[in-house]
Specification:
alpha+beta, Glutamine Phosphoribosylpyrophosphate, subunit 1, domain 1, 5-stranded antiparallel beta sheet, 6 helices, 10 strands, about 35% helix
């Protein structure tokens, strides 16, 4: 068996997505995961009849704050939060909105959170199998409410994992410690929002009300909280 290459030898295997390294790694996918880890912290929490999504966002001094978005409404009952390349997130958001509307037109009912997540994961996985493309450099937390609330994570490989609470991005490790300690089943919305804020502040030292983004997703509405609303929970 050939020895596992190291250092510069890996350059022969990271120029295209469709070539495995001798130790069974798709290096372009791993690089895409690093892009997710470098993104600002994003968190999702599943409640009994709702999902709370939260993120820290980076804004420029002269930038319009509303143009920096990490949380998106996909349908009235589904939202998602991203970490990584926001341009990649935008492309997946547009794709997801179209899939949600196709489902409503075709079947006369809102798409399930599970089905939508599968569509997104299939799209992410597809671009790991063809030369001339690259993986999406973005991780997503997708949450919504059909009969029950559900929260899923997708990574650049197209993996799909369901969570009660999860954090992604550069402060994910510290934020997860807060979630693991304080998350409880059947939390109410107020407790969920307070936990999101606490976890985001643990993950990002400079997190303040001005650069926090929080949304509450219910069966009939995806509500984005304004700065004054967030202050009332902080």
């Amino acid at each position: 068996m050939q020895p596992i290459p190291s250092g510069a030898n890996y350059m022969a295997y990271d120029r295209t997505i469709v070539v495995f390294s001798p130790d069974g790694r798709l290096l372009q996918v791993e690089y895409a995961r690093e892009a997710v880890k470098r993104g600002s912290t994003s968190i999702g929490i599943r409640l009994k009849d709702a999902i709370v999504l939260g993120a820290t966002k980076i804004t420029a001094p002269l930038g319009v704050a509303e143009s920096y978005k990490k949380i998106y409404e996909i349908d009235s009952h589904i939202g998602l939060v991203s970490s990584g390349l926001l341009s990649d997130a935008r492309d997946l958001v547009e794709f997801s909105r179209v899939r949600a509307q196709i489902n409503r037109i075709t079947y006369g009912e809102p798409i399930s959170v599970t089905s939508l997540t599968r569509y997104i994961c299939d799209r992410k996985h597809m671009v790991t199998q063809y030369a001339g493309v690259r993986p999406y450099g973005v991780g997503l937390l997708i949450g919504g409410v059909n009969k029950h609330s559900a929260l899923y994570e997708t990574d650049p490989s197209g993996t799909m994992i369901e969570w009660n609470a999860q954090a992604i991005g550069r402060g994910a490790e510290k934020a997860r410690k807060v979630l693991e300690r304080d998350y409880k089943d059947n939390m109410d919305v107020s407790s969920g929002v307070k936990l999101i804020i606490k976890a985001l502040r643990a993950g990002e030292r400079e997190a303040s009300v001005e650069n926090l983004e929080i949304a509450i997703v219910k069966a009939d509405r995806c509500k984005r909280l304004g700065p004054e609303d967030i202050k009332s929970y902080a």
